[in-house]
Amino acid sequence: MIGTTLLHYRIVRAIGHGGTGEVHAAEDLKRRRLVALKTLPLQVAADPDRLHRFQREAQAVAALNHPTRLPTASGWRSTR
After folding, report:
1. Does domain 5-62 have CATH number 3.30.200.20?
2. CB burial class (10 A; 0-12, 13-18, 19+) of residue 51?
3. What pLDDT score does 9 carry?
4. Can you tell me the mean pLDDT for 55-62?
5. Is the pLDDT of residue 32 over 90?
6. Where are the domains of the chain?
7. What was the pLDDT predicted at 77?
8. Among 10, 26, 49, 56, which residue carries the largest CB count within 10 Å?
9. Are 54 and 20 in contact (CB under 8 A)?
10. How far apart are the first and last CA of the chain?
């Protein structure tokens, strides 16, 4: 995924992965800043319970503000 552009985010490098998806450092091309971008496999995004859990996680993480943490990118869901 390195170098791929999703909406206005260009994937820069992998940060980590876990049970629900992968986290990448990405450049927000609109705001010219580095953000953390989590992508979900289609089978996870297609499960309403897991998707809801991810949305709750995103809300909690977006509320954090710390100098050692990247800003969180906004949510987006593929229709594919």
Report:
1. yes
2. middle
3. 92
4. 83
5. yes
6. 5-62
7. 55
8. 26
9. yes
10. 17
